[in-house]
Amino acid sequence: MPPSDLTAAYEDTGHDRHRRPDIQGVRAIAVLIVIAFHAGLPVPGGFTGVDVFFVVSGFVITAMLHREWLTTGRLQFGRFYLRRFKRLAPALALMVSVTMILSALILSPLEPQKNAAKAAIGAMVALANFVIARTTGGYFDGPAAVNPLLNTWSLSVEEQFYLVFPALLVLGWVLARRRGLRISPAVFVAVVAVASFGLAVYGSTGVDTPGSGMLVGFYSPFTRAWEFAVGALLALAVARWRAVISRVPHLLTASGLAGAVLLVLSCWLITETTPFPGVWTLLPVVAALLLLLSGTHPGSPTTRILSMRPMVKVGDWSYSLYLWHWPLIVFAIVLWPDNRLAPVLAALVSCVPALMSFRWLEQPVRRLGALGARRTTMLIAMVLIPPIALAGIVSATAKYYWTPRIIADSLTAVHPGDLGQEARFDVMQSSSVPCTITLLADEYQDYLGVHRCLQSKPGPDVDLAIIGDSHAEALYVGLAEAFPQQNVMYVFLQAWPARDTQNAQQAFAQIAARPSIKAVVVNSHWKFYDPTPVLARTAQELVDAGKSVYFTDDIPDFPGMDPYQCKYQLGLIGSTRCTRDAAAFRAENDPKVDWLEQVAQQVPGVQILRTSQYLCGPQECDMSADGKLLFEDTDHLNLNGTRYVAQRLVADNPAFAGVVRVILSGKRS
User: Does position 9 have pLDDT exceeding 90, yes or no?
Assistant: First the structure.
C-alpha cells in the first residue's frame, strides 16, 4: 500500500519553479499498481508501489529542506510540521470518519470493527503501523483483508520519518558548517541507510528473535528507513553535482529506461511469499532512484512520458486515491465476496470521494495562509477529535455491548463453533506434551503461550509426524483424536518450503533418522508458495529413510469473509454468509495441487490426501457443515473443523489409516 504523503511535494514551499512534473508521473504509476494489486488484478508485486513512494518522499522532502537551509540558514520545524499536518491530516480524518461509519454498518461488531477502530486511532496519532501489527497481524494474513484501515500503516511510517529526519539533516548541516564539510549530512544519511538495510535483510531471513517483530517486521519504520534515505541521498547528490549530472544526458536517458524495466520486474517477480522488506526490495527502490535521476534531464523519453498531463493529474490525486481505494475495496469484498468484479468496481468508485476530497478539502486547507496559535489549535482539534470520537464509539459498542453478549452466550448462534485460536490452543496445551524434536529457538515455537512443536503422548516413539505451517497445525488435534492409540506429533515450520530455514532442515533430518516414525503428513497454505525443489528433495530424503509421505491439498480460504458473521448473523447490512465461489477457490488451488502431484510422480512413495473436497461442493465452498461452524478465522479450521476433516480423511483413505495403525501393531504387539 502506498505511504502517506503521495503528493507531498516541493510545491508545498510555494516555489513552483522547483516543481518536477515527472515526479508526479512516478507517483501516478506507483499508486495505480498498488490499486491494481488490491483490486485483485494480475499484478502480484503491486504492493511494492509503497517502496517507490518512500523513495520519492525521501527525495522531495530532502530537496525542500535543503533549499530552505541554503536560503535561510535554518529550518523552521514548527512551520514544517504544520505544513505536513495541513497536507495530510484533514483528508485522512475525513476518510477515517466515513470508514468508521461504514464499518459500524457493514463489518462484524467484534474483531473486525474493533481492529478497524484501533487502527483509526493509531492513524490519527501516527502509530497505525504498530497498532496494526499487534491487532490485525501480517500484511498478507487473513484478518488484513477485512481491516479497512490497513493502508494507514504506511502513512504512519512516513509521518515517523517526518518527525526524525529533519533533525538528522540539521545536525549534519550544523556540523558541516563548523567543519567545512558540506557532505556531512550525506554521511549521516548513509549510515542510516546501511544500518536500516542490514536490519531489513536480517529480518527477511526468518531468524527473528522473540519480541523483535516490530523491529524487523513488514510494518517496521526501522526496516523502511533506508528507502527514504536512498531518496534523500539522491537529493543531496543532485544538489551538489547537478552541473556534472547534466553533462551526461545519454546516461540519464539510460537510467530512466533501466528504472522502468526494474519497476515492471518488481510487479511480477515479487509476490506475497517474497521475504519483504529485504534484498528483493532493492528492485522497486533502485527503480524509483533511477527514474528520479533520469528526471533531471527533461528530454529523456521516460521523463517526457511521466510528465504528460494525465500522468501528472493522477500523481496530484494519488494521495486521495490511496486513502479511499482500500476501504471501499474491503467493504465491497465483505458485501459481495463471490463477485470477482466487486473489488475492481470498488476501486473505480473510490475515485469519486477521492476527487471530491482533493478538490473541496485537501486543496483549500493547503492554501490556508499563516495561522495564529489559537486558530492552529482549533484546526488541529477540528481535524483530530471527530475521527477519534467515532472510533471510540465503534470500539466501545463492540466491546461493551456485543462482546459481553457473546461471552454470556446470549446471542443465538446460527452455526455453533469456536472462534479464534484460543479454544484449539487450549485443547492442544491440555492434551499434548512438547515434542522430542530438537529445534532452534525462535519466536514461532512459543505463540500465545503454546509451544508449537507438540506430540499427543510422551516419549520418543512417535508414530505419525505432521509437518508444515499453521494449516498443518490446524490438522493436529483432529488427527491425534482420530488415532487415539498412536503418538501423533506436529512441527510448525513457518513458510516452509518457500523458506527452507535451519529449523526445517534440522527437523526433517531428525524425522528421517528416527525409525519409529513411519508416516509423515505435509501440509501448508500452498496458495502462498511457489514451486520449489525443496519439497521434492525433502520428500525423497524421507522416502529413502523408509517413511510413507503424504501431501495434503489445502482447505479453502475465505478472504474478506467474517466467521463471526457466519456464526451469529451480525451487522446491520447483509445476512449470514458462510460460502464462497468454489470455482474461484479451485482456480487458486488447482495449480498448487498440480505441483504436488508432479512431486508425487517424481518421488515414488509420495501420495496425495485431499481435504478440500470435504468443504467444497460443485458450486460453493462452505465455512460450515452439518449446522456447525468449521473455521476459527478466514483460513484456519477450528475444533469442529479439524475433527470433521480428520474423520473424513481417515475414513476415505483406508491405506493411509492402515499404515498408521500397522505402525502400532508392529511396534507394540
Answer: no
Q: Are 17 and 302 in contact (CB under 8 A)?
A: no
User: 2: closest CA among 303, 262, 314, 252?
Assistant: 314
CA distances from 78 to 163, 376, 467 (A): 11, 11, 55
Q: How many domains does the chain have?
A: 2
Q: With CA atoms as reference, report the closest residue to 436 among 480, 489, 358.
A: 489
Count of alpha carbons within 13 angstroms of residue 471, beta-carbon side:
23
Q: How many residues does the chain have?
A: 669
Q: What is the pLDDT of residue 5?
A: 39
Q: pTM of the predicted model, to two decimals?
A: 0.75
Q: State how far the Cα of 59 lies from the Cα of 362, in Å rounded to an integer.
A: 22
CA dist 596 and 522 (Å) reads: 11
pLDDT digits (tens, 9 = 90+) for 528-555: 888 888 999 999 999 999 999 999 999 9
pLDDT at residue 443 in the model: 43
Judgement on whether residues 386 and 453 belong to the same structural domain of the protein: no
Given a contact cutoff of 8 angstroms between Cβ atoms, the answer to whether 46 and 38 are in contact is yes
Beta carbons of 438 and 503 less than 8 angstroms apart: no
What CATH number should be reported for the domain holding residue 512?
3.40.50.1110
Q: SS3 of 368, please?
A: coil
Q: Are residues 436 and 382 in the same domain?
A: no
The CA distance from 227 to 2, in Å, is: 13
Mean pLDDT (the chain) is 87
Q: Which residue, of 364, 397, 430, is where some domain finishes? A: 397
Distance between CA atoms of residues 108 and 564, nearest Å: 7
For residue 573, the enclosing domain spans 422-668
- Both 263 and 387 in one domain: the answer is yes
Do 337 and 212 share a structural domain?
yes
Residue 612 and residue 618 in contact, taking contact as beta carbons nearer than 8 Å: no
Asked whether the beta carbons of 580 and 561 are under 8 A apart, the reply is yes
Query: 392: which 3 cell numbers?
Result: 471510540
**What are the angstrom distances between the C-alpha of 547 and each of 136, 412, 604?**
39, 47, 11
In a domain, 404, yes or no: no
Nearest Cα neighbor of 551 from 559, 543, 560, 561 is 543
pLDDT per residue as tens digits for the range 619-633: 999 999 999 999 998
Residue 233 belongs to a domain: yes
Computed from CA positions of residues 602, 606, 612, 614, in that sequence, does the dihedral angle turn out positive or negative? positive
User: Is 427 contained in some domain?
Assistant: yes
The answer on 435 and 321 residing in a single domain is no
| Residue 135 in domain | yes
Mention every residue, 6+ apart, whose C-beta is less than 8 A from residue 464: 479, 483, 486, 487, 488, 489, 517, 519, 520, 521, 660, 663
What's the rounded Cα separation, in Å, for the pair 118 and 589? 34
